[in-house]
Every structure is written in structure tokens, then in C-alpha cells.
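Reviewers of the previous submission asked for a worked example of the structure-prediction workflow described in the proposal, so we include one complete record here. The input consisted solely of the amino acid sequence. No template or homolog information was supplied to the procedure at any stage.
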Amino acid sequence: MSLGQFLPYGVVGLTSYKFVDTQPSGTETDLDQTGFSIGAGVDMQVTSNLFVGVEYLARSASGSNEFPAYNAPFEHSSHIDTLSVRAGFRF
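From that input alone, the workflow returned the following C-alpha cells.
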């Protein structure tokens, strides 16, 4: 739904991360996380081809891995918030 020169929108999606934990001994463990993303933003038409926008996006993910060095499961999670400002040109 457009409101004059403003276009508000919502975002929902899947989040997937892969971290690598490196121990001093050189042992590496992959930490995989999955979760969801949710956010909202608004674009503003400046000219017929130029627009600017702002978007807030929250990402939450979690996972479970087993560290060989400890022979035990390890639960981990992350939450990342971003605020983006952008400009674009429509051809």
C-alpha cells in the first residue's frame, strides 16, 4: 500500500548463520544457527527514478553443537538488530 511518495513494508524470513570457533590448539568447530528475521521499513520516492529508504531488521537464531574437546553438547544463540539507510535508482 503506497501512501503518496512513501511505501511502508514489512519483512519476515529465515535466518541462517555459520560461525567457526577456533581453539588455541588450532581445532575448529562449526557453529550453525537457524532462526527467523522480522522487520519493517519505508521507502520514499524523491524523483521518478530516485528513492531513499530506512529499514529495521531483527534476527534471532540458535543452535546446538558438540565440542569434540569437551565431548558435551553446547547450546548457543544470537540476536542481531540492524538499521539500514539506503538510496537507490530505478531504471
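The radius of gyration is 20 Å. We consider this example representative of the routine output the project will generate in years two and three.
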